[in-house]
Amino acid sequence: PALTMAFVGLLETLLTARLVDQLTETRSNKTREVFGQGVANVVSALFGGMGGCAMIGQTMINVKAGARTRLSTFLAGVFLLVLVVVLRPVVAVIPMAALVAVMILVSVATFDWHSIRPNRLRRMPRSETLVTVVVVVVVVATSNLAIGVVAGVVLSALFFARRVAHRTTVETILSPDGGERLYRVSGNLFFATTEHLADQFDYEGDPASIVIDLVDAHVWDASAVATLDAITARYAGRDKEVTIVGLNPASADLHESLAGHLSTSH
User: What span, in angstroms and rounded, lies between the C-alpha atoms of 146 and 1?
Assistant: First the structure.
C-alpha cells in the first residue's frame, strides 16, 4: 500500500506539473518538484502527519484564479491550516451535500470535455481510444489509479511495438556475378521484429557469401542479437558465410557482448 500511494502521488504530481506548464506556457523543474515532495512527505511522517502530493483539481482552480508563483501554493496551505485549526467548528456544520457539490463543480471545470467528443474519438487512432477506455475501466473497477496507469502503459507499449515492427524493411541486392547477396535492413530490431526479420532470408537459394547491412537499423535487445546469430547459424549449416556490417556504436557494443552467447531459440 505504501508503494502504491507513493507511486500514485508521484504520478499525480507529474501530471499536475505538466498541465500547469501547458496552461501557463512555462516549463517547470519536475525533478525539483518530485524531490521536494519526497522530502516533505518524509518530514511530515516524522511528525505524525499524512503524506501529500500536487492535486490537479485544486491546482486548476488556483491557476484559473490567476495564480502564477509558489506564493499561491504557500497561501493555500496556510488557509487550509486555518480552516482545520481555527475554523473547524464552522467547517463541521457545512452539509456534506454542499461539499459534494463543490467537488462535482471542480470535476466539471477540470475535465477536458473535448477529449470525449464523438468527432474527436472518430479521428483518434483506435489503439489510443482503446487504451483510454481500458485505463478508465481498470481504475473504476479496482479503485486504484496505479493499476490503471500500469495497464495503460503496458497496453500502449504493446501497440507501439506492433506499429514499429511493421516499419522494419529488408531490401535484397544480388551482386553482378551472382556470388554475393546483400540484405539491407532498415528499422528497429527488437523482440517484436525478430520473426519477421528471420523470414526475409532465402537460406536455400542464396549464394555462398551473404552480407547483412545494418547501417539503417538499430539493434535494441538480446532477441535481435539472438536472431542474427540464428540467421548466421542457418547459413553456416549450408556452408555459407555471413558478414554483418554497418552496426552503429550502440548496436555494435550490444552485438559484441551477446553474440555467440545466446541460444538460437531465445
Answer: 11
Taking the whole predicted model, whether its pTM rises above 0.70 is answered as: no
Q: Please indicate, yes or no, if residue 81 is contained in any of the structural domains.
A: no
Tell me whether residue 197 is in a domain.
yes
User: Distance of CA 232 to CAs 20, 68, 206, 239, Å?
Assistant: 53, 61, 13, 10
Rg for the chain, CA atoms, rounded: 28
Q: Does residue 211 belong to any structural domain of this protein?
A: yes
Q: Residue 20, Cβ neighbours under 10 Å: how many? A: 19
Q: Identify residue 16 by its one-letter amino acid code.
A: T
- The answer to whether the CB of 212 falls within 8 A of the CB of 245 is yes
142-184 pLDDT, tens digit per residue, is 887 778 888 888 898 888 888 877 778 888 888 888 888 898 9
Does 89 map to a domain? no
- Residue 182 belongs to what domain range? 169-258
The cell for 248 is 552503429
Co-location of 192 and 246 in the same domain: yes
pLDDT digits (tens, 9 = 90+) for 188-214: 888 888 888 888 888 888 888 888 888
| Same domain (yes/no): 147, 173 | no
Point out the domain boundary residue: 126, 153, 180.
Answer: 153
End-to-end CA distance of the chain: 36
* Count of domains forming the chain: 2
Kindly indicate the confidence band of residue 97, based on its pLDDT and cuts at 50, 70 and 90.
very high
Using CA atoms, how far residue 259 sits from 32, 44, 85, 230, 248, in Å, is: 41, 51, 66, 10, 15
Q: What is the CATH number of the domain that holds 248?
A: 3.30.750.24
3-class SS at 144?
A: coil
